[in-house]
Structures are given as C-alpha cells and as structure tokens.
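Late entry, evening session. Most of the bench is empty. Finally got around to the prediction I had been postponing all week. Sequence below, unchanged from the version circulated by S.P.
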Amino acid sequence: MARSGSGGQGRFIGDDDYKSSFKEELEKTLDLETWSIGLDIERLIDDIRGQVSHSSTAEEDIQATVRAGILGNLKEYTRLDVAGVYQASEERLRTVFEALLFPGRVEAVSSIVASHDSLPLGITQLGVAVVGYGGMSGTFSQRLFRKELSTEDEDPIRAAMECMGARHERSGTGRRDMVSALARRGLRDYAERAILLDKSQAEWRIGQGNPCSQGLLTGSGYPRLLMASLKMLSRLIGGHKKFVFVPHAMEERGYLTLGHALRPGEYAIIKTLESDSAHAMEGWSYPNEEYRGAALSFVRKYCGDILIGLFRASEHAPPSLFFAHREHVHVAAHIVMADSLIHPRRGFPMLLEVADSSCRGVFGTDSFQGLVQDAFTRAGGKYQYINERRWQRQER
C-alpha cells in the first residue's frame, strides 16, 4: 500500500543541491562565525529588502521570457491543436454568469473530514455538500469506526498483546497512521466525484483538485477502491463531460511560473492530463499487474481527453489551475473565471468557497466534537480518552 522511494525519505540529498538552492556552501552556513549575534534588526531588514528586490526583478524577467518564448509557442511545444493563450471577454463572462451560474445550472462540491482518535476508538466522519447559487442541493455523510479490541476473543491476554503491538506499530515515533490517512484521502476524493456525478442535477459540475487524483488512480492502496474509482471516472469523463476542477492551491511551481506570465482575463490551455497521470502511477506498488494494467488502460483511454489549463481572473489575483474535458474546455474556463470575479483579489471560484463553507457549517469539528463528548459522557464520563492532546482532526 506504500509507494516505494516516495518523499525522498531515507536518502542523502547531496551538498551540491544545497549550494544550488541557497547559493552558498553548507560549510559556510554551519560556521557560527558567519551567524549574527542577537536579532541584528538593521542587517535583517537590509538582507530581506535586498533579496526581495532582486528576486522580484528576476521573476519579472522570467515572466516576460515565458510569455514571449513559451506561452506564445504552446502549440509547437505540446503538439496540441487547442493549446494556446486566450482572452476571456467581459461580455462573454457576463453572459456565462447570467445564463449558467446565476440560474443554478452549475453546482459545486466540497468535502470535509473530521476525526476522533483515542485509545479505545477511532472515528472518522466524511461529509460532502453540493451547492449552487439556487441553494444547497444536498449533503451526504459517512462514518467509519476503528476498533482494535474485541470483547469476544477467547484468549484476552493474547488479544491484548496483539492490540498493543498493532497500536505501537501504527503510532511509532515520527509516523502517522498511514493506513487511515490513505483511506481518508481516497474515500474523500471518490465521494466528492461520485456525488458530483450521481447526485448533482446541474448541467455543469465544479470540483476541487485534480479529477484523476493519485489517490484514485492508485486506489490509495485499496484494490476495490481503485476499481470503483476507475469505473466512476470513466462515466464522468466519457459520459457527462461538462465538468471543471480547480485546485485550492497550486503546488506545481512549473505551472505557477506559466500562470504568472498570464495577463488579467487570460487563460491558457497547456497540455493533456495523460502524462501527469502516468507519472502519478510510477513507483506505486500495485497488488499485481492486473490492477496496474487496469489503471494504465484507463489513463490511456480517458486522461488524454482532459485538458490542463491556467487562468488569471484579475490583476491582483494569483493564477489558478483548472481541468476540463476537451469538448467543453472553453466554456469551462469562462465559468470558473466568471465565478472568480465575484472575489477578484482571491481569484478563485466563489461557488467552491460557498460549498466549502456550507460543508463546514453542517459537518464541522465543533458539532462532531460535541457528539463524541456526549457519547463518552453517556458511557460513564470516561474523559481521560477525550482529553488526549491530539484527539481530533479536521481536514479539508
């Protein structure tokens, strides 16, 4: 269930990488004679101002080069006929908002995960909300309970020893409960997309993140989740097609560099999702070649129909990534740009923000915490379990 060699853990990075990143030898950093004594506020201000000024100028030069040399030649670089930079006119953005967004013909989905993790019991609640500007279309929830002890074991001492061993392995120093974390992430990705596909009634659907996330293409380590995900995504991509996905944060700095070279009101179509999806599968330990083959076959058949684009809604907004079907990519770009202009400094689709707020309002940690506390109270006031320091967690 784990990826081999992921995250760079357990290996040396290399002193040359350090010098390349920080433009000085590691020995100089380690030499305490080069360190300032105390805060040294004047030197701190000079250093930060100088570095910010230099970096800003260098970034502007890069953006000009990217715009002229890369964005202007996307078709040649990608060999994708639809690749290029497009201007979204104010008139068309207004039409899209008035004809699609405002009447409720577009709905967005968001989810939240709240967890209680104490010694006797782990509880995970997944909540999903679907909303449009006409109101909330529906909320859906699922709860998972992890119990490590059984009251029916014939050998209670052996059961207790096995339970302690499992708990020690699951919560070793510096480790997270990776099984639960992978399950939560994969189930949340699946639930968002499945509910958007089968429970939303709108013509257009907006989701968060990459539609074919790594958690779905690998099943997060669970074969049944993998096969269910591939089946569901096949219907979304091959059947519905009118969708657009926008990540809350853009972590790929290569895409971010391209996005910052866009002018306000522009969007760019840069490539298909096929190569990125194939890369997400690399290094993952599938149970056997049948499952790897099924995932690879899906990527080859469907991910080439999903286009990756970038848009910049306004002058003060950062760029955002979006994913849409090639048959409707231009309408999809106008939908997310029109919706983002409601909050021009944020530059992010407001409908996704509304879905997120609605989801937190219904399934937030406070109400979940109250239910758990009440249950422990009714069980005899065993507060030593709910007072553990990291007893709850809320995830987007």
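Two things to note before I forget:
The longest strand covers residues 106-117.
Residues 41-69 form the longest helix (29 residues).
Will write this up properly tomorrow.
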